[in-house]
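call fold(seq) -> tokens
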Amino acid sequence: MTPLTIGIIVAGVLLLIMGAGMYNGLIQLRNAVKNAWAQIDVQLKRRHDLIPNLVEMVKGYAGHEKSTLEKVIAARSQAVGAKTVGEKSAAEGMLSGALGRLMLLVEQYPDLKANTNFLALQEELTSTENKIGFARQFYNDSVMTYNTKIQSVPQNVLAGMFAFKPEEFFELKDEAAREAPKVAFS
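ret:
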């Protein structure tokens, strides 16, 4: 073998090792995005599980406010049924708005606000809303890192060859939905 042939083989092996390293890095980032989404999904499920209890408790005090309660249940159903990140972010925005209106309704019922079961449920919902916010931030950070990597040279070549697609951010598009439901009472 000539020195040129050996040089070409060594360069080829080095390129193959670098390509494998870049590919593995892209896989790790894609899996980090999936893991971050799973964390959001867990918190959204917890939120969805709390809502029927909240609605039932409010219904006991404010049953005549049927339309507000029905809007919360409809928004929850839509959020549970959403599949993609975009659908979920839109549905969760609607759900946050409906919960905000429900909490405004609760303000009119001092007995409900003083109920210990309601206070415990309110605390759990507040905690869940905070966890959703942190999980959403972690997810969006993971998506930004992943999307940046697959769009940067030289990984973009490898990403294109192996069909790595950009991930969608979990954003609240509705300005009213950007406000977390007010669940703290004075």
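The two ends are 84 Å apart (CA to CA).
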